[in-house]
User: Fold this.
Amino acid sequence: MSKETSRISRREFLKIAGTAATVSVVSPGLLSACAPKAEEKKKLTVFGLTTWSGVVDDMLGAMLTAWGQGAGVEVEWSVFQWVQLEQELAAGLQAKAPPDIALLMENNLHYYRAAGNLLEVTDVVDDLSAEGGGLMEAARAILEHDNKVWGVPFWNNPWPLYARKDILEPAGLSVPTTWDELLSASLAVQNPPDLYGYGMSLGANDDTPYNFAPLFWSLGGAFLSEDGKTSMLDSQATVDALSLVKKWWDAEIVPPGTFGWDAGGNNKIYLSGQAVFISNPPSVYASARANDPELADNTLLAPMIGETAVDGWSWAVFKDSPNVDLAKRCLREWMRPAAIETLIEQGAYRCPPYKGLYEEEYWKAGGVVGQFREYLENGRYLAYPAPPSPAAGEMIKAMVVPNMVSALLVEGKTAKEAAAAGHAQLQAILDKYK
Amino acid sequence: MFQSQRSRRILTQILSYVALCTFVFFALAPFYWMIITSFRSQRELYRVVSLWPKEFYFGHWVEALTSAGVPIWLKNSFIVAIATMLLSIAVGVPGGYAISRLQFRGRKLLGLSLIFVYLVPSYLLFIPYFAILVKLDLTNNLLGLAITHLSFTVPFCTWLLVGYFKTIPRELEEAALVDGCSRLMAVLRITLPLAAPAIVVTALFSFTLSWNEFLYSIVFLTNRDRLTITAGLVRLMTEDEFPWGLLMTASVLSAIVPVWLYFISQRWVIRGLVVGAVKG
Assistant:
């Protein structure tokens, strides 16, 4: 190889470059450390969840910003889709930098509570409850553990029965109140593959346990024992519920594509006019109201046959927040019952958690929201009669109910065998939390 | 015999075109469906299955370009992707050259470690990265996001360029050195121009990798006005309701930039791929 003749050798070039790089990286830090620091305004980070109404999301953020301006607090408001929020919280908690406040669904509330990440907020909830005329029992039960409240209530989602009145009324039928009526009405009006009776979700998604639960409860079943430590799936009620699902499947009132659905599958089949009945939160009604008013006008919402499932959203304060007192103050002043009422009346179609709010004109006017109080008064959360727990949340995520149904209808097992498999899977989850 | 050779040639051509048309169809059909869906109303999406909209609806485009925030997200994606591309080239080119040409202790280990780093899934890295960004106050920061993207673009670019630099004869540089050039001048005047196709390819790949990146974007950016297009698309979904028309419109808009970039640089891409940019 030829000898290099250069004005600057490689070694010298690297020395100069390294020195320049070090100076350029270090000097801004040094300069900022020496500069006098401006007085820092207190900052609160709040994470929300996307609702099915952009108007409500924006209004919630505007209310929070207005509170921040009044309180002299800089507020950072971010809205996430649920899966995204889980990842955001995982990263934040590991980095010891979670948000100050986050909006959580009930099973996730208890997941973070059990992991020791949350602050008890009983005092805040008691104050707001007094202002709102008391909390609905189911709304409080969803938030409680060991007689302490871990989330400031926001609203509750009912899972009513949707029914197409424009299909039922010409056939002389009314909204079914028993499972036999559901079956006979479906058989009378359906026309597969264009129209199915009951768009029941049976696939590997979060809707399936909420579609299965009312049927299961009405037959005397429960997922968990009262203390939440034992699976109750090894019961005759489970076998009966699975047998009824099989009867509907064999009668072809449930669309065959249900096993491939995600959580929006039953939404799609109803919005495309291919199902007479579904069970889902009012997101489908809200979407129809916005995009297909004719369908919305022809939709009846009724209490689910048996028991109506409900779930709850609440605001949680993270222990690692450097501003826990400010966070509690924010929730006390921002999440007042009147504010929740204002938001719901924008077309959120949720159940307010406070009893006093049902005296407002909006709820008394009837119509689609006329039975929302009944949904929450008589509603059950999924873990009932056990207290809400991270195990119940894992039951949903681990697809215990979809696996059971799949064993029955896809793998061809008997109802007893499918129930036994479900029981084993659920008990294994519960044993992890012992 | 001549007739049968000619028939065989014609048959081969026909079969080739059939295969090509099939591939083109499967490649373009999703784009067609995406574009058509963006012009259907939400009601028609659920009610009508057809290859052409019953009625053209422009509401999704109006919403995407005005209130939904899509233009800001596209701008942010562009900034991050450009920054990532430039930084990747700035690190990858000298790194690739050093590993392929220079002799120093740990050269082989460095080359292997690039591959190992590239193979670590982003799901294992997003939490430690987040912790670092929090400490540096770089969350909700486009530069912070671009820096994290370097974790997969730099190994990729360096690895590609190592292979390409090896195909360039050393003798060309040595001739320049003999004629009095410094090493740096030889690289700048001879090696880099010859490596231009590979550099363009790696620049485009790093741009595309950064443009399409999802996990880091949704975790490290929370402020709506700082989101990239991939993170922004997720924000358009609400619980169990998907605004398909709006999502498809935003997807069409997000596909325009990379498609346009590859279109204008296709000559370089083909040269870079064919001449040996992807050789290991």
User: Anything to note?
Assistant: The radius of gyration of chain B is 24 Å.
